[in-house]
Specification:
This is SUMF1/EgtB/PvdO family nonheme iron enzyme. One of its GO terms (molecular function) is formylglycine-generating oxidase activity. InterPro entries: CTDL_fold, Sulfatase_Mod_Factor_Kinase, SUMF_dom, SUMF_sf. The protein is α+β, with helices and mostly antiparallel strands. The chain has helices at about 5-10, 10-25, 65-75, 105-115, 130-140, 150-155, 175-180; strands at about 30, 40-45, 50-55, 60, 90-95, 95-100, 130, 205-210, 225-230, 250-255, 260, 270, 275, 280-285. It is built from 7 helices and 14 strands. The strands form 5 sheets. The chain has a 5-stranded antiparallel sheet, with helices on one face. A 3-stranded antiparallel sheet has the order 8-9-10, with no helix packed on it. The radius of gyration is 19 Å and the shape is globular.
Length: about 290
C-alpha cells in the first residue's frame, strides 16, 4: 500500500490496515490514527517503548528543485547558496517503514540501555547525540537501523515539495521555536510535519556514505557519512539566515571515524574530529 492509497481510505479503512500491520508486526503495538494535521498512524516498538510512525511507500522528487531555489532567492537574495550538493534532482521511491516520532531522546536511551544518558546538558529532553559507531551499536541492540538519506528526506518532506516542510516562508520567531527547539521537555506547543514527525532539524545521522552530489558517477568521500538538517542544533540562531539549515533538501557530511592528514613536515598525524549527532530508529514493515 502506498501513501496515496492509504490517505484515500476513510477512518474505518485506515483502522483495518493498522490492525493488519499490528498482526504482521508483533513487535509493534498500534496506538492510534493520525489527527489534527498528522496524516499517519502511530505505533510503539514494544521492547524499546519508542513511538514510531507507519510511513507508507511512495515516490517523490529528491533534491533542491528550481522552484525551491527561486523561493530561496526571494527570501535571501544576498546569500550565495551553492545548490550543487543537492542536485541533480531526481525521482526516488521509498518502501514502507516504521520511523521514530522523535530522534532518540534520553528516556529512550534509558529504556534501551538501562542507564541514564550521561550528558548533563540534555536535562530538557534534548536528543541523544552519539558517534556513528555508538549509534550502530544502540540500533543493533533493538533490531533497528538508521534511515537512508532517501528515506530521511521523504520522511522530512512529509508529502510536500516546498522549501521547508512547513511551507515556503520562514515563520515568525515565536512560531519558529515550535518547529526548531530541541528541548522536548519544555512547555512548548511543538509542531510536527504532516507525517507526525518532530525534531527534524537536530542534525541526524543517515546510513549513507557522503558524496558531493547525487550524480551516480560521484565517488563517496572516505570516512564521511551523511547527516541532515541542523537548524535546531544552532538554535537560538545568531544570524537570521540560519534557517537555511531547515531546508528539506539541505545536506551535510560528518566524519564517522578519526583519520590522518599530512602535516607541513610530511608526517601524518591522527586528528580527532569524530563527531556525535542525533539519530532516528527505522524498522522494516512486514507485509506492507
Amino acid at each position: 500500500m502506498d501513501l496515496t492509497e492509504y490517505l484515500e481510505l476513510d477512518e474505518a479503512g485506515q483502522s483495518e490496515i493498522c490492525a493488519q500491520i499490528e498482526k504482521e508486526n508483533p513487535r509493534f503495538r498500534f496506538l492510534g490514527l493520525g489527527k489534527q494535521g498528522d496524516l499517519l498512524p502511530t505505533f510503539q516498538h514494544i521492547d524499546s517503548q519508542i513511538e514510531v510512525k507507519f510511513i507508507p511507500s511512495g515516490r517523490y522528487v529528491m533534491g533542491f528543485s528550481p522552484e525551491e531555489e527561486a523561493q530561496f532567492k526571494k527570501l535571501a537574495p544576498e546569500i550565495d547558496l551553492d545548490p550543487d550538493c543537492m542536485r541533480p534532482t531526481h525521482e526516488e521511491s521509498v518502501r514502507s517503514l516504521f520511523i521514530s516520532v522523535y530522534p532518540v531522546l534520553p528516556r529512550h536511551y534509558k529504556s534501551v540501555t538501562g542507564s541514564e544518558y550521561p550528558d548533563a546538558k540534555y536535562a530538557h529532553g534534548n536528543p541523544v547525540n552519539l558517534k556513528y559507531e555508538e549509534t550502530e551499536v544502540f540500533l543493533h541492540s533493538i533490531g533497528a537501523r538508521l534511515p537512508t538519506e532517501v528515506e530521511w528526506e521523504y520522511c522530512c518532506r512529509g508529502g510536500t515539495q516546498s522549501l521547508f516542510y512547513f511551507g515556503d516562508e520562514v515563520p515568525a520567531p515565536e512560531l519558529l521555536e515550535q518547529y526548531v527547539s530541541e528541548e522536548f521537555d519544555k512547555e512548548i506547543d511543538f509542531k510536527a510535519n504532516q507525517f507526525g514527525l518532530y525534531g527534524l532539524f537536530t542534525g541526524e545521522w543517515c546510513s549513507d556514505d557522503f558524496a558531493a552530489n547525487y550524480s551516480p558517477e560521484t565517488v563517496p568521500e572516505r570516512g564521511m557519512k551523511v547527516f541532515r538538517s541542523e537548524g535546531s542544533a544552532r538554535w537560538p540562531w545568531q544570524y537570521p539566515q540560519e534557517w537555511i539549515f531547515c531546508i528539506s533538501a539541505f545536506r551535510s557530511s560528518s566524519p564517522k571515524e578519526n583519520f590522518f592528514k599530512e602535516e607541513l613536515l610530511g608526517k601524518p598525524k591522527s586528528v580527532s574530529i569524530i563527531r556525535s549527532h542525533s539519530f532516528r530508529t527505522v524498522w522494516a514493515v512486514n507485509g506492507f
